TrEMBL record:
GO terms for molecular function: DNA binding; DNA-binding transcription factor activity. Pfam families: HTH_1, LysR_substrate. This is LysR family transcriptional regulator. Belongs to the LysR transcriptional regulatory family. It comes from Actinoplanes aureus. Transmembrane segments: none annotated. Residues 12-67 form the HTH lysR-type domain.
Length: 302
């Protein structure tokens, strides 16, 4: 493989690429060493070896920054590493005993239909080994792309009829599973609870809850909002409890708010938003993942 500046990367050691990506993403040799559990000296040696192999400087040292060649390599490196992990996972599936289902999902992607479909599949096979992984959207998308999980359900807020904007999914295909109105969740006693609808652009002075794993504050299509509290967990019950206690507002799916005592969901007039759940499938997904997708009634996105 050769990139657009003529550098051959077909024989590059994947371990060196991983180290390079860690330095590029953290902007620091010491931070990359902590992430990879290497010594800083080992990271420096691996970057030097990669640069010697490719015959060009990839990073400046003080400050640490990507060179032009480094920027181009970085565009390729993540995809190369994902494809390597996907190949490894595919081989592992070929030699693994049958009857494995690993479902990955973001916290708000779980629903009663998902639970019922999973229960039906598990009920049909007493020997099925099932595992549910709950994490943030980027982590779940990557895990699906590398084959770490068999099927992924991810959620987010978007304009009506628009698909979610997901990270590079590799060979996966996004299919729609469910959708519902998006609302601003507020305590029942909050003055905004009496409003018929809200414009998010008018709420710059309100305090919001930033919940990166559940409902990322940064992904709302509005500028100027400020977070009064940051919640790092994935427990939706804890999050809605924080809202009910008055710690801040958050955008959530309407059905979720309706089931939580102490909360009111105020419709959003602008910008128009809906909550979408999408399922990520690979062209070669096998049973029981394929059957779970069929039970969920997933339809290709138009």
């Amino acid at each position: 493989m050769t990139d657009d500046i003529g550098i051959s990367i077909a024989d590059v050691d994947p371990h060196l690429l991983r180290t390079f990506v860690a330095v590029a993403e953290t902007g620091s040799f010491s931070a990359a060493a902590q992430r990879l559990r290497y010594t800083q000296s080992a990271v420096s040696q691996q970057i030097a070896a990669l640069e010697a192999d490719l015959g060009t400087a990839l990073l400046t040292r003080r400050p640490v920054a990507l060179t032009t060649a480094g920027e181009r390599l970085h565009r390729h490196a993540n995809l190369i590493l994902v494809r390597l992990e996907a190949a490894r996972a595919d081989v592992t599936r070929a030699i693994a005993p049958p009857g494995r289902l690993i479902l990955g999902l973001t916290p708000l992607a779980w629903s009663e239909p998902v639970s019922a479909a999973l229960a039906r599949i598990r009920g049909d096979s007493a020997r099925l080994r099932s595992h549910v992984l709950v994490d943030g959207r980027d982590r779940i998308v990557t895990a699906a792309a590398t084959g770490e999980i068999d099927l992924a359900l991810v959620d987010g807020f978007t304009a009506p009829n628009d698909p979610l904007r997901l990270p590079e999914p590799g060979a996966q295909v996004a299919v729609g599973v469910a959708g519902s109105p998006a609302v601003v969740a507020v305590p029942d006693r909050h003055p905004l609870a009496r409003r018929a609808a809200l414009d998010l652009n008018d709420l710059a002075d309100a305090y919001w809850i930033d919940a990166p794993m559940v409902a990322p504050f940064s992904r709302l299509p509005v500028d100027g909002l400020r977070a009064g509290l940051r919640y790092e967990g994935a427990d939706v019950t804890v999050l809605t409890g924080l809202v009910a206690a008055g710690h801040g507002l958050i955008v959530l799916p309407a059905p979720l708010v309706e089931r939580r005592p102490g909360l009111t969901g105020v419709p959003i007039a602008a910008p128009r938003l809906v909550h979408r759940v999408e399922l990520l499938r690979t062209p070669n997904d096998e049973e029981p993942a394929g059957r779970l997708a069929a039970l969920l009634g997933a339809q290709p996105l138009q």
